[in-house]
Amino acid sequence: MNRSPRRRVLAATLSTAAAVLVAGSAVLLSAGNANAATTLGASAAATGRYFGTAVAAYKLSDTVYSTILDREFDMVTPENEMKWDATEPSQNSFSYTSADQIVSHAQAHSQRVRGHALAWHSQQPGWVSSLSGTALRSAMVNHITNVATHYKGKIYSWDVVNEAFADGTSGARRSSNLQNTGNDWIEVAFQTARAADPAAKLCYNDYNTDGVNAKSTAVYNMVKDFKARGIPIDCVGFQSHINSGSPYTTDYQANLQRFADLGVDVQITELDIAGSGSAQATTYANVVKSCLAVTRCNGLTVWGIRDSDSWRASDTPLLFDSSGNKKAAYDSALAALNGGGTSTTSPTTPTTAPTTAPTTAPTTTPPTGSAGCTATVTLNQWTGGFVATVKITAGSAKINGWTTGVTLPSGAAVTNSWNATASGSSGTVSFTNVSYNGSVNAGASTEFGFQGTGVGPSATPTCTAR
Ligand code: G3I
C-alpha cells in the first residue's frame, strides 16, 4: 500500500508599507473589481481564480469551438478522455492519445488542466467489471499510479474519486464494485494519487452535494475524518448540475464555506444550469458570486461550451448557444465575476445577481505614501519539489501593479508559474503582475503561483507596489 509523502504547509507574511493587513479579518474586501476584464478567464484570474470548461478532444478541430475555448477559458477538464475506460481499455495497457491532445492544447494556450477522474464506479472498461476483491483493489492502485504518473506535473487538480456517495438521505456510500473492495478504497486512492503526483491538488468530486443536505453532509464527514487522520485530500469538487430536480439553493455558499472551514479548497467542477433567459442568467450569477465569496473557492468549470456540446443539450444549460453566441447567462456570469471580490459577509446569502458589470472604477486618488502591498506564501512541499501559492494584498490604497521578490533556498529552482511573469529561476526570483491582475483595490487580494524543484521558500517575500 502506498504512503503519502509528508506535506508541509508554511506561511510567511511581510508588509512593505504601513499597509493595513486584512487577511483573515471580517471585512468586506471589495465591492467591485476595478480591473474588470472582458473574458471569463481573465475576469476570474483578476480575483485569483480560474474559469474552466469541459473539453472533448474530437471537437478541438471545430474552429468555432476552439476559438471560444481559447478566448474565454483558462482551465480545461477532459470530459471523457481521462476516464478509466479511455485510459486503460485493457488491463495494464494504457492509452493516452486523446487526453494528451487536450493537455497539449491546454499547454499551448496557457490553460491549466483538471484531471477527471481516476476512480469511479461508472465508465469503467469491461475488464474491470469481472474483477473483485484484492484483484480489483490492485487494479485500481495500478491504474491511479500509471495515469497520475503519466500526467505528473501537468495537472492542477485531480478528481481522484468521483461520485462515491449514494443519493437520498441515507448518507451511505454508493454500492459499487470499488466499494465492495473495502471501505478504505477512497483513502487508498488518495494516498496512491499523492505518491504519484505530489504537486496536484487531490479532490473528491460529487453531484447533488450543492447545498447542505444528507449527501453533502456525508461527504463533509468523510473529509473531516480524512483531515483528522492525515489522509491526503486538498479539495472538494461540487459538480453543480443544476435543474428543477436539483435546484440552486440559498445555502449553496454556506455549504462551500463549511467544507473550506475543514481546511480544503473547494471548486465548482461541472456547472450547467437548465433553463434560459433571465432565470438561468440569475442562477449563473448566484453560483459565481457564491464561489467569489468563499476565499478557498479556487474557480469554476462549466460542463461544456455551447448548448449543443452539453450532455444535456435539450436543457440548453451552458453559456453559449449552439451557434457559439454569448447568452444572457454568459453576460451575467461575466458581470458577477467583474463585480466580485472577497466577501466575508454572512455565508447564507441568497442574492439577486447584478445584471450589468460595474462601469466605473474608483475615482479617488490614493493618498500619497499609503500604497503598498503584502505578500503571503503558502507551500505544498514534498521531497524534491513544491508548489507555492502567493497572495498579494494591497494596503490602504489601490495599487496599479506589483512585483514580489521570493528568495529560494540554495538548489531550488522555479520550473513554471501562472498568473505572474517570473524573472530568473533561482536565488531571488521576481514575479510581476500580468495584464489582468496588476490593479488591486485597497485591502483586496490577488493570487499567483509557481512550481519548483528542491526546497520551497521559507523567507518572507518582498512586495513592491506601483
Ligand atoms: O464515443 C462514443 C461514440 O463512439 C459512440 O458512437 C457514441 C454512441 O452513444 O457514444 C460515444 O461515447 C459517449 C461519450 O459520452 C462521448 O460522447 C458515451 O456513450 C456516453 O455515455 C458518454 O457520456 C458521458 C457521461 O459522463 C458518461 O457517464 C458524457 O459525455 C459526460 O459529459 C458525462 O460526464 C459526467 C462526469 O464525468 C461526471 N459527473 C456527471 C457528468 C454528466 O453525466
Automatic annotation (TrEMBL):
<feature type="signal peptide">
    <location>
        <begin position="1"/>
        <end position="36"/>
    </location>
</feature>
<dbReference type="Pfam" id="PF00553">
    <property type="entry name" value="CBM_2"/>
</dbReference>
<keyword id="KW-0378">Hydrolase</keyword>
<feature type="region of interest" description="Disordered">
    <location>
        <begin position="340"/>
        <end position="369"/>
    </location>
</feature>
<protein>
    <recommendedName>
        <fullName>Beta-xylanase</fullName>
        <ecNumber>3.2.1.8</ecNumber>
    </recommendedName>
</protein>
<feature type="active site" description="Nucleophile">
    <location>
        <position position="270"/>
    </location>
</feature>
<dbReference type="InterPro" id="IPR031158">
    <property type="entry name" value="GH10_AS"/>
</dbReference>
<keyword id="KW-0119">Carbohydrate metabolism</keyword>
<dbReference type="InterPro" id="IPR017853">
    <property type="entry name" value="GH"/>
</dbReference>
<dbReference type="InterPro" id="IPR012291">
    <property type="entry name" value="CBM2_carb-bd_dom_sf"/>
</dbReference>
<keyword id="KW-0858">Xylan degradation</keyword>
<dbReference type="InterPro" id="IPR001000">
    <property type="entry name" value="GH10_dom"/>
</dbReference>
<keyword id="KW-0326">Glycosidase</keyword>
<dbReference type="InterPro" id="IPR001919">
    <property type="entry name" value="CBD2"/>
</dbReference>
<dbReference type="InterPro" id="IPR006311">
    <property type="entry name" value="TAT_signal"/>
</dbReference>
<feature type="domain" description="CBM2">
    <location>
        <begin position="366"/>
        <end position="466"/>
    </location>
</feature>
<comment type="similarity">
    <text>Belongs to the glycosyl hydrolase 10 (cellulase F) family.</text>
</comment>
<dbReference type="InterPro" id="IPR008965">
    <property type="entry name" value="CBM2/CBM3_carb-bd_dom_sf"/>
</dbReference>
<keyword id="KW-0624">Polysaccharide degradation</keyword>
<dbReference type="InterPro" id="IPR044846">
    <property type="entry name" value="GH10"/>
</dbReference>
<feature type="compositionally biased region" description="Low complexity">
    <location>
        <begin position="343"/>
        <end position="369"/>
    </location>
</feature>
<dbReference type="Pfam" id="PF00331">
    <property type="entry name" value="Glyco_hydro_10"/>
</dbReference>
<feature type="domain" description="GH10">
    <location>
        <begin position="37"/>
        <end position="336"/>
    </location>
</feature>
<keyword id="KW-0732">Signal</keyword>
